[in-house]
Specification:
mainly alpha
Amino acid sequence: MKPVPAPCIAAGLPAKRMRTRAALVDAALELIADHEPETINIDMLVRHARMARGTFYNYFPSWQDLLVAVAEKMHGDFTTRVESRLGPNDSDTVVLACIARWTIQLCIDEPALAWAWVRMGPRLHDLLYERQDPRSRPKQAIRSLCAGRATDLGAFCLIGGTVFTTARQLLTGKLSIDEAEDVLALVLRGIGAPPAQIRPALDRARAFVQTRVVPAPD
């Protein structure tokens, strides 16, 4: 039987149960900031969350189901911090520059959270692509810039893979922020952004990330 997606399980839970579920998700996110998801198990999680093992199974059938919930939370964070703030008049190049530059800025402002994003990269990549409305600004921007040169998914893979790899190198001190921006410029050019728009778009993205937006508590 196909598992019910995490948001559906959470919907309608009493407030106390919602808080307990959110605490498990937050504890997992904290562990993922320090460990690869594949190295974490349920015993580690419940110790970190200071809960009984049985409590975990009241909310999640398995560790993988919890990872889906973590990815859902991070997707909501992304929507609040980035996607919802993109202006209707921002060009396609600016939209993608802001998204990529936000991830890079996270490495500077919130390195623990950035590590979680990097370590959850493949799962987040799939979730961000699959859950976004086809009419969302990121998908529209990708579709417009690629214009037949690549599929939407192919371009999304290029952007997502490069951004997460760049973030990892930045977090480990192997790249500077200026070098990371140079990588973003190459990616934007590779997916079809007009060369004359790229540097101004990165300047706009730099200003965009200076305004920090913190998601509301669960």
